[in-house]
Queue: 2 jobs
Job 1
Amino acid sequence: MNWIHLVSILGAAFAISIGAIAPALAQGRAVAAAMDAIARQPEAASTVSRTLFVGLAMIETMAIYCLVIALLLLFANPFA
Amino acid sequence: MKIASPLITHTLFTLGPVPITTPVVTTWAIMAVLTLGAWAATRRLALRPSRLQAGLEVIVDMISGQIRETMDAPPAPYLPLIGTLFIFVLVANWSSLIPGVEPPTAALETDAALALIVFGATIFFGVRAVGPGHYLLTFAQPSLFMVPLNVVELFTRSFSLTVRLFGNVMSGVFMIGIVLSLAGLLVPIPLMALELLTGAVQAYIFGALAMVFIGSAIGEASQREAKT
């Protein structure tokens, strides 16, 4: 276990932890706004939820990118 | 504890010089099942539908309704592509329920191939809606400065389509594998139920994003046509 392994593991952990915080906050905001919209206008629920799903998928992509970076660091590290 | 890398697909056998990996075999098996199933189910269509035919009609009707709502266009030209993508991704995600089968969408290559289909279809439908010259002009849509951004977006959204499906399905399979190696036989069952939900949502999102991309390609074009 040399220092590159150590740094890679730490880097992967930090990547996924920071990459989980921000999309979680963003998704919370998006869902709250959608709930608000549905409560005000229940007849638009299907349109709102469809747009919400697509938007959540877009936000979630950021977390998935961090996951891929973490996996690259752990399993396909170009320096280790 | 040594965990196998989820980024590497292992070769099952080689067909001449071509190595055949496990996801390829699973993909072809799913394709065969879907094709034969669709052929067998639509062989005797009746005006008074049987239970199976009614169920299939509900699915087709639901998908075409979604296309009509999302794209604001008659769904007939897009229904075969979007419906096939949705059903294939759904069945592929749920194929992890069969013991010993790893879903082919948990491999990066399968998702890249699916995203490449959407990429090609976006350009094809965009060009077919207005012709190649007008389609190229849509890249300079708000102003000429947007051309590099629009071109980059064309590629990054295909990439994000790939990585989104891969990350979601693969992380589920990976997590179930880790939990199974730590705890006993029945412990991963709630995780597998969660994975069913994720698989369905991801299949829906893949189809919806394909609709949005194709819809934006033909929508910008038709707006342009209305202006000129």
Job 2
Amino acid sequence: MNTLLEVNKVVKQYGDYVALNEVSLSVPKGSIYGLLGPNGAGKTSLIRIINQITLPDSGQVILDGEKLQPKHVQYIGYLPEERGLYQSMKVGEQCLYLAQMKGLSKAEAKKQLEYWFDRLGIQGWWNKKIQELSKGMAQKIQFVVCVLHKPKLLIFDEPFSGFDPVNANVIKDEILALKEEGATIIFSTHRMESVEELCDHIALIHKSNKLIEGKLDDVKRQHKTNSYEVGILTENVEGLMYDITQKFTVSPANFKSLNKELKLEIQIGNSLPNELLNLITQRGQVTHFVEKIPSVHDIFIQTVTKKV
Amino acid sequence: MSIISLIIKREFFAKVRNKSFIVMTFLSPLLFVAVAVFVGYLSSMKADLKRVAIHDETGLFANEFIALNSQDEQYKYLDLSQIDNQFLKDSVANNGYEGILVIPKTTTMADLENKIEFISNTSPSMSFIENAQEIIAKKLTKINLENAHLDTLAIKKAQAHVNINIAKTSGEQGLKGLNEAKIAIGGAFGYLIMMFIIIYGNMVMRSVIEEKTNRIIEIIISSVKPFQLMIGKIIGTSLAGILQFIIWVIIGLSLLFAASAFFGVNVGPTAHLAPAIVEHSPTEFAGTAQLYIKELWNLPIASILIGFVVYFIGGYFLYSSFYAAIGAAVDNQTDSQQFLLPVIIPLMLSVYVGFFSVVNDPNSTIAVAFSMIPLTSPIVMLMRIPFGVPWWQLAISIALLFGTFLLVVWFAAKIYRIGILMYGKKPSWKELYRWLKY
């Protein structure tokens, strides 16, 4: 697949502290790329390098086939985690100013602003000062500022924080719409459920190193434990357990169901799932048989705690 | 539109539209004029007449003081030599006397010199005491001369009064009093630069801190270079300052003229010259006044104005870079004090050097040295310019100032670049030094 952003062995040091240790990433065009990692892992340092706020000590960043250079700022839209706008400046004026900084002409900026204000239903805010808006309202303005100049690459750092569920949904839909229009999105968050929902690629950075990168499905495949959640209605529990434990590793499972069946999590190792299925159908009524796919949450915690 | 001019525009309008800017701009000239008028009114008011009792046991001096009553507007002397000294002392407070001048009877005139007392419950003014001493000494000298049978008139004739005239090699006549005008002009411009640097430097710093606490900084520097932002901010703020200054000058002048027309106070150029002129006799008067005005026009007005602009730009930019770097290094204004002190000290120093060294001798080593050092030169050199400065000194001083400015901007930009992204803790000097190396 075509790569939009290529990060190549980037190193960043602050004094003695290594913030990024030869981190390489490749972000495919048109993807939503989840950049994950615990606090202090180096995500913000990396994002700042991509935004040319700071320069890497070594390594390089390639955007759309070209080495990162000042003109690229207009291809990138950045929504930082720490939100902020000029408190005493009017909304419209402020958006125009920030859009012009990204290289839009005043007329073009105005046109785009009107489109977005209309789209998000905030037309009436043009002459309000930021200090008159609530936090969530200011966040919306900031989102508009970030996408206004139709950037090829969007970087969202915790885009949903501060939004109520309704507005979070509005923003989520906008992000998906931007993807449909061809934008590539880097998405940094601690909310794993939104990663599951939105991202098709992920990378996990921990302690200044990249530990995992790839398509979300591939990553999950690599991390699956070949275990199945099984629910069986049976009279002879001891017999069933005896049979299964002969061949597989068993532990109790917990999932929602309407019956009072026996719930097990069974690791089948290298065996085929049919072997397990054959075995249990002979012993009782199977009500539940699901391959256990690791969630991003599980992968995150597993990786981060393992490598300490 | 280029990015820097975009930033300049925003900074300018952000300052100018600010309510406190508007209030400051239109209120301070009013305040200034109000204070000036008030002071003028106070000084034109006559002070209360203070009564001083003279208890002169010798009978020689009382008349000398009484004779002053017709001229002196501050003191009224009363000859109470007949009244008992002790009784007088007791009644000083009750009768509202400022004090009693007691001149006792002594065996010889020489004894008298250290025996005279002024008894008062308040502390008398120095000028009053000096004046009284002079009157008594004059009378005593006269008596001594007479006692020695010397011809006082001949002695008076023999006394010479010397007045050195100042001229240049070009043959132009100068006036001593003009130095004061030069000091006043140089001092005013030097002081103006200092005030401007402090007020607007602080504004630059506040604006940097605001962006930092707002957290908008990260968005902005993802679009522009920190250096562009810093320079745009400094220039934008200075333009707001210049606008404010121009408005002040216009309002101030019109108010001053209006006030002077109303109160009939003469504020034209002649008012400044008046004290010097009154010492001359009426025949000399017209010629002297002409000479003054001519000399004022002969002042290097062009160099003063150009010097003001050049040193203002250089000095303001130099110091603003410091202020911007400080603003970037701290999270809030209270933390900035520690770093501001080293910035304020050279400014204070230059004003002191200006008012002591330059006024005393504009070409002294100290004055020349401080008009070369970039941190003090904007103020000290401006104070020297009215007295005439060799062009090579100006050239070195300006070159040093702008060279240092470039250097400081470079360092400040480094601190700024790192500082604006640092949150939470107040950096130490050591850390600031480390930032320079990142």
